[in-house]
Specification:
The chain contains 19 helices and 9 strands. By secondary structure, the protein is α/β, with parallel strands linked by helices.
Length: 511
């Protein structure tokens, strides 16, 4: 672009160079010249039609608003149930379940390594009794439930199904999502149990079972959010998330499924970060950002939520203002929910389909992100695919380098973070945070031990023996897990049965 065409091109500017948070250069002005040879028909199309850039449904939000969720779950199942019922009474349209760390990594609440962690970062779920309490008086046929769970995803899904069956619900009507994205755990988050390849078998077993038993259920939420929160750039978030998706699709095909059998139940979860201008539409998208300073977070999350809606998300989670510090308080969760409701009903952005289509800046930067993502995917393919790239530490190393460079830019004040390296409030600011009563751990362990004392131990052992037998075959593991949870086997017992065959993952050290 000729500089002389731009008014004020020779005036002094605040910086010698402007970039996105990911380092992509930002031009002074975007015009039609930036979209030379750009094909609107091919790049945009129409809502509900390929390439689905303008939305996956023809009417989008004019027909139905996105599912409004708040990440919730803490302490005991009874306390979390009260929070869910409160949020639903305030207009929330879907649940998003947070599980505590022992549940996430397949340990019962009385495991020695669970000491001090029970109910702290989510709700403690050990057995079907806890799951029944968690969803007491909540008709599962009528609510969409998202569960942030990965290495124990098959177990928690089976617990949910078992409770639905007890409610008399039709499994064909159950809707929701189980995250079940184990690859991003090795890359960014860390709540893995088994080595990569047996873990992938569990994922594809869930695909196969849900295809017939839970046709309205999203069997995986392929997550860029956690990759971005680990420090990746926007390009890396898109590239590594799509590379993970390619790996899941290939694994399912290798397991004997055809694409059309499982693809409609795949979903994606992206982070509406400061420079995520990618116009990417999927069945599920998310808007969230860990707060640097609590007093700024309400404004940040509102902007990010608006960006996610402009991008055409189908499900939206907004972080509460205290979520970087603790699990959300009731008041903070309500403010976050009200943020979504204001966007939906007061801003007007939901009244027209894809209002930002054709923006010179957005479409140009989208093209740049797409090019960068494709370059990464080609490199990953050249190394033998995503599984090899993870096992070798390549992906983790790329994210670590990006995180280091971003931190250096903050320290050099090239990147301003309000409240952190500029406009810092001198006096201490505190906000109320949720405190988990230590007594919850003791009572949870008591309930667990009482369950073990009353249940039919012979029946439980028989179901675990059958599960162990299946691990040595190619038979689907999900039916055996469902039978086990219905017999009152615990999350830890089922996970340990799988550990004995599959072993445990040992992380590669990447420096």
């Amino acid at each position: 672009m000729a500089e002389t065409k731009i008014p004020g091109a020779h005036e002094m500017e605040r910086k010698p160079q402007f970039t996105t948070l990911s380092g992509l250069p930002i031009e002074r002005l975007y015009t039609e010249e930036n979209l030379a040879n750009w094909d609107p028909e091919g790049a945009l199309g129409y809502p509900g039609e390929s390439p689905y850039t303008r939305g996956i449904y023809p009417s989008m939000y004019r027909g139905r608003l996105w599912t409004m969720r708040q990440y919730a779950g803490f302490g005991s199942a009874a306390e979390s149930n009260q929070r869910y019922r409160y949020l639903l009474s305030k207009g929330q349209s879907g649940l998003s379940v947070a599980f505590d760390l022992p549940t996430q990594i397949g340990m019962d609440s009385d495991h020695p390594l669970a000491l001090g962690e029970v109910g702290k970062v989510g709700v403690a779920i050990d057995s079907i009794k806890d799951m029944e309490t968690l969803f007491d008086s909540i008709p599962l046929e009528k609510v969409s439930t998202s569960m942030t769970i990965n290495s124990t995803a098959a177990i928690l899904l089976c617990l949910y199904v078992a409770v639905a069956k007890k409610q008399g619900a039709s499994l064909a009507k159950l809707s929701g999502t189980v995250q079940n994205d184990i690859l991003k755990e090795y890359i960014a988050r860390g709540t893995y149990i088994y080595p990569v390849r047996p873990a992938m078998r569990i994922v594809t077993d869930v695909f196969a079972w849900c295809r017939t038993e839970l046709p309205k259920w999203n069997t995986i939420s392929i997550s860029g959010y956690h990759i971005r929160e680990a420090g990746s750039t926007a390009v890396q978030e898109v590239a590594f998330t799509l590379a993970n998706a390619i790996a899941y699709v290939q694994a399912a095909i290798d397991a004997g499924l055809t694409v059309d059998e499982f693809a409609p139940q795949l979903s994606f979860f992206f982070n509406a970060h400061g420079d995520l201008l990618l116009r990417f539409h999927a069945q599920t998208a998310g808007s969230s950002l860990t707060a640097q300073q609590p007093e700024n977070n309400i404004v940040r999350v509102a902007i990010q939520a608006l960006a996610a809606v402009l991008g055409g998300c189908q499900s939206l989670h907004t972080n509460s203002m205290d979520e970087a510090l603790a699990l959300p308080t009731e008041d903070a969760a309500l403010i976050a929910l009200r943020t979504q409701q204001i966007i939906a009903h007061e801003t007007g952005v939901a009244n027209t389909i894809d209002p930002v289509a054709g923006s010179y800046a957005i479409e140009s930067l989208t093209d740049e992100i797409e090019k960068g993502a494709l370059t990464y995917i080609e490199k990953i393919d050249a190394t033998g695919g995503m599984l090899r790239a993870i096992e070798s530490g390549y992906v983790q190393g790329e994210i670590q380098r990006a995180a280091y460079e971003y931190q250096r830019s903050v320290e050099r004040r090239e990147q301003i973070v309000v409240g952190v390296n500029e406009f810092v409030t001198k006096e201490d600011r505190t906000i109320p945070t949720l405190r988990i009563d230590p007594e919850i751990e003791r009572t949870q362990i008591e309930r667990l031990q009482a369950l073990r004392a009353k249940r039919n131990a012979t029946q439980v052992q028989a179901t675990l023996t059958e599960l162990a037998r299946r691990t040595t075959t190619t038979e689907n593991l999900v039916p055996a897990i469902l039978t086990a949870v219905e017999s009152q086997a615990t999350v830890g017992e089922i996970s340990d049965t799988l550990r004995r065959t599959f072993g445990e993952y040992q992380e590669s050290v990447v420096i």
